Amino acid sequence: MEPLPETSSNDWTEPGIYTVAPGVYRIPLPLPNDGLKAVNVYAVTNGAGLVLIDSGWALDEARTLLRTALRAIGADLGDIGEFLITHMHRDHYTQAIALRREFGGTVALGKLEEPSVQASANPDTRVMHAQGRLLINSGAEVLLDELASTFGASPQGARDYELPDEWLVPGSREVLPGRDLEIVHTPGHTAGHVVFDDPNAGLLFSGDHVLPHITPSIGFQPEPVELPLRDYLDSLRLIRERPDRMLLPAHGPVTTSAHARVDELLAHHDERLTATAETVAAGASTAFESAGALGWTRRKRALADLDIFNRTLAVLETAAHLDVLVLKGQLSATETDGVRHYSTV
What we know:
This protein is globular. It is α/β, with parallel strands linked by helices. The longest helix has 24 residues, at 258-281. The mean pLDDT is 94. The protein is built from nine helices and 15 strands. An eight-stranded mixed sheet has the order 1-2-3-4-5-6-7-8, covered by helices on one side. It has two domains: 4-126 and 153-256, 4-Layer Sandwich (Metallo-beta-lactamase, Chain A), CATH 3.60.15; 141-151 and 266-344, Orthogonal Bundle (Arc Repressor Mutant, subunit A), CATH 1.10.10.
């Protein structure tokens, strides 16, 4: 295998290794689900040292494909000196932990991911427990039995999680001699999500913060935060205020402008806030009712047509939009028997 040039005509999920810029390679690795098919990890090298930005899911197939790809640039798994991880979700973090156990190398992760990593590494933490609590608050208790039957009440795979070697904080950091990256805190998708800005090369390793074809889920993590959509929109505006970069996302193809996609995402959420407010004006009271009145995915599917995992995401994202509308003074909210109800002002 030889590195291939990065072109817009590539199927971005096709296994291999693709040259993005001098010393920067994109390696798509498989995911074990029906939605997203792959995650991009990025190898950054100066010929002597090797750093990976994100790592993939700890799967045998992903490990094999990563090794094959690295051999195309004269490296192997044991040559990875450091993993810089954008956020704690399984498809970004867990292969770094598995490879650290086997080969060494250090793992670095945003500081504000610590509560969720601690929960994920705790063998007593139950699958989707936090999401279950939020569903009750959203008026979606009816989904709990299906959620429990799908994901069970067993621990959520604590063995796949360990604490990183370093908690990242915003600022400039040398990752290889002659190559510094700016660590930018971009909460929203998760509380401690970070992106890595390479100002000299004009690259933005955006993780799940800015994705070219889809909008990331908001606030899906073991330790939820109060207003994840507010945080996400503020983080998008932060990236828009910084110099534009080539966008190197975790899911989807490399594109030429992070700013162009940020503008699209901000416009999408403006439209979604308007549509969500209209569901309350039409009589929806809870996030569950509001989600049921909205269309989902590009095909505007009904909530009931989604699988239980995506129904959960949809309800919780609707709740996040409703809470931003309350923050903006466009709706009011009250709680009765643990359920949050919304009304027009």
